[in-house]
Design goal:
It is a single chain. The protein is α+β, with helices and mostly antiparallel strands. It folds into 2 domains: about 70 residues; about 120 residues, Immunoglobulin-like (Sandwich). Strands 2, 4, 6, 8, 9 and 10 form a 6-stranded mixed sheet that branches. A hairpin with a 5-residue loop joins β8 and β9. The protein is elongated. The protein starts with a helix and ends with a helix.
Length: about 210
């Protein structure tokens, strides 16, 4: 009897843990792929303003974007993976509150002119400008600039959801981890159910074998 209680208790604990892991791993089903739902991430305290979100330029041409961001220990970052690293930027680094490039004297505010040189390849590119905490907080606010080089009709192969707003930069990694968590939880549940069935079947057989 004690062995039976111990096994049953172990199975119940295993199933409880599996359900908890699964509930953590499953993303909110009401959030779409672009993560535009307000419940997707904590609302960012940061703001970002850029003076242009659509630019048409000739190849190898310099143009400027006015950039302003606010928030605690704010920094402005260019997420240049989306443009396939084809553009040249000055400043070519993150601009933090109080840096020499920061022309806004107020605390927790960054303002500067971003000088950009377009690539030679004629495509429609996306430049993503991000405002976030300099301490590495993943909750950010961003905006995209569509840059058409040479009046192209072909879009760059770099992927983007094209929607500005609050977003976790590592959302894709989170989706992968969530998927792994769900699959692992389902696997554990399947094993627990199979072991439970086997245990009770063996227990019933043993009971029959020991009966007079």
């Amino acid at each position: 009897m004690n062995r039976t209680k111990m096994v049953i208790g172990t199975l119940l604990v295993s199933m409880t843990i599996s359900l908890i892991v699964m509930s953590i791993g499953i993303a909110d089903p009401n959030i779409d792929d672009n993560c535009n739902d307000d419940g997707c991430h904590l609302e960012s305290e940061y703001t970002l303003n850029i003076n242009q979100t659509s630019v048409s330029v000739a190849p190898l041409t310099n143009f400027q974007i006015e950039t302003n961001g606010t928030g605690s220990d704010v920094t402005i970052h260019i997420f240049d993976i989306l443009d396939n690293f084809e553009f040249t930027y000055l400043p070519n680094k993150n601009v933090n509150d109080g840096d020499i490039e920061d022309k806004d004297p107020d605390v927790n505010e960054v303002g500067f002119i971003l000088n950009i040189t377009s690539p030679s390849v004629l495509l429609i590119y996306t430049i993503r400008v991000i405002a976030k905490s300099n301490s590495g907080d993943s909750h950010v606010v961003y905006d995209d600039i569509e840059v058409n080089v040479g009046n192209s009709t072909t879009r760059s192969t770099a992927t983007t959801d094209k929607d500005g707003g609050n977003r976790d930069l590592w959302e894709d990694e989170h989706i992968i981890l969530n998927s792994i968590g769900v699959l692992a939880s389902v696997g554990v549940l399947v094993v627990v159910v199979a072991l439970s069935i086997k245990f009770f079947v063996d227990n019933k057989r043993n009971a029959r074998g020991s009966s007079p």
